[in-house]
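Researcher: For the record, we're logging two predictions in this thread. I'll number them. Prediction 1 follows.
Model: Prediction 1, sequence and structure:
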Amino acid sequence: MNFNFQDVTQNLISQIGFIVLLIMVIRALISYTREDWGQFFSGLVLGLFCLIVVFFGPQLEQLARAMGNTIFS
């Protein structure tokens, strides 16, 4: 049986990020209907941030590792 924890963690992080993305989009839509512009834009920005993390997670991880190796090596 070949079980890889790294694949499981990447899949789990992507799923959690997608759920947070959905929550932020719903909150932004509710704020838009109430015309609460501050909460709308903050929800929109956080939703876009979650979208970036979900779709570009592995690339961001590689970038963070490269920066960490450069700084701490």
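Researcher: Logged. Prediction 2.
Model: Prediction 2, sequence and structure:
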Amino acid sequence: MSDEEIRVGGYVLKGGTGVYMLLDPETEDPRATIISQGNGTWRARTLDGEAKTYQPPDEIERPALWVAEQFVPAAEEGTDGR
């Protein structure tokens, strides 16, 4: 998955090769990062520091998308209303 762009909730997931960002769809301002930590674990963090670690099930073909789908509610709570 390289330079892929997918809508997830109110965000756009964009990136590839283990590094992704959740972006505001209108301004493309970053709202959160999603990074592969290796060994099947991923770390998602909002700009205000809210962070969670996820381990997608082995059968998931697109782990970054799966993490984004789990993390979007936390990212939405961490926005400043813009």
